[in-house]
Amino acid sequence: MLKASLIAALALVLVCLSGAALAADTGERAAVAAAQQWLALVDRGDAAASHATAHPRLAGMFTPELWQARIGQMRRDLGATVSRRLRAREFSGELKTPPPQQYFRFTFEARMSKGVDMEEVVTCLQGAGGQWRVADYFAHFK
Length: 142
Hints:
This protein is α+β, with helices and mostly antiparallel strands. The chain has one domain (2-141): Nuclear Transport Factor 2, Chain: A, CATH 3.10.450. 48% of the residues lie in helices and 30% in strands. The chain has helices at 2-43, 47-53, 56-59, 64-78, and strands spanning 81-92, 103-112, 117-126, 132-141. The protein has a 4-stranded antiparallel sheet.
């Protein structure tokens, strides 16, 4: 009887752990998709859509007009995106700044048409309704 109870308890633990792993994997897939879709908007120069779909944390730092100017300047300076690949991912249960939230941070390597190689760091937070949105973007040249 004790052996059967131990086996049942172990099975329950494994089911719970696999459910948590599946939820985290689903969250990561949704977050990386959100990051890639947002980057595609920026690549197309669609400043209005990239501003509108950003997390309020990022969108609130720029007026739509200022965001348009920044995207336009970036395209003029760097050219179009030739290639991009996901190089690293990081998940944390809590941001260091309030309010505490789960986030994913993705690092992409990108090559631009004017010969510039850069690293892009995109942080996604869950917005209203659990939707992942880009809350921070940083690019630096290699």
